[in-house]
Prior knowledge:
The radius of gyration is 20 Å and the shape is globular. Helix 5 packs antiparallel against helix 6 (155-170), helix 6 runs parallel beside helix 13 and helix 8 packs antiparallel against helix 13. The chain is of the alpha+beta class. A 5-stranded mixed sheet has the order 3-4-2-1-5, with helices on one face. A hairpin with a 4-residue loop joins strand 3 and strand 4. It has helices spanning 5-19, 86-89, 95-100, 111-120, 126-148, 155-170, 182-192, 198-205, 213-231, 246-257, 266-278, 284-297, 304-329; strands at residues 26-32, 46-54, 62-66, 71-79, 103-107. It has 2 domains: 5-120, 2-Layer Sandwich (Beta Polymerase, domain 2), CATH 3.30.460.10; 127-305, no CATH class.
Amino acid sequence: MRITREMLIKLARDTVDKRFKADPSVVAVFLIGSVLRDEPLLGGSTDIDLLVITKNEPSFEREIVKISNEIHLDIVFEAESLYAKPRELRSDPWRGWTMWNPQLLHEKGKFFEYTQSILRAQFDDPANLLGRARTFAGPAREAWTMTQLGSEPTLPEYLTMVENAANALAVLGGFPLAERRFLLEFPRRAELAGHPELTDTLLALLGGLDLDPEILRAWLPAWEAAFLQAAAQQPPNDLRIHAARLEYYKQALLALLATESPSACLWPLLHTWSLCAETGTLNEAQQNDWLAVLQTLGLDASGLSLRLQGLDHYLDVLEETLDAMTAQYDV
């Protein structure tokens, strides 16, 4: 099946027509995410991200709907009240950028026109730009500080610190980093922020700076087995590792391994594998495979202390950058 951007947009529109237009609780529906790119596919696969705004609190936050092995719908539901103060959205890195330029598919009233017009005014003012960056930088430093007070981080907690640290720099140049393209797009954002050296620092924080790409490729069968095991839960424990998303990740990993930056596959591989391990469903052999990966990357219990030292250095550079911008713009 040949997948085109036009086909993906039609699938989104058809879904909205069938499911949401007649629903009186739905205020608006937007197409967001990768389909808005000129090239939405990575490895021949993609998701169709829909944001559904409801009058009241939605009954659930997220839904994954499989269309084919290569395509699935990723539908997020949020209450209209979260967008009631558009001025505050200017410093919200997620909702702010989401409302900057989505594709409106359905609306009742003037929700979008009102919200976007206020949001866009002064969106790029230094105070709002720094606010978006500090939304990530603050939690990253706070979590790191807790580790120095005797709180041993779990791997998911450490990865969240790294993700926040990376996004704090990345949002100085645009939208927060997408999961599959996380390490692929970070170098450009780091360069825009004036710190290209932090690309190697970020890779080192994940244990991937000098990692042979063939090792990454050799891990894929064990990763896939763990994903299938975790995704078999009924009901699904974590929609990020829903069964419909297997090929979405797998084809992206293979595509990234074939690029000039094969280490870019490390983040989606590591992040999803850690989510699988957290479900507690892996058998003994699968758990041993996972522990061996962590040991190789220096992300096991004995290696995390060294990684935390590197994270401290990264955060120091980040904080100096944000402080310099604060002084420069007197905000």
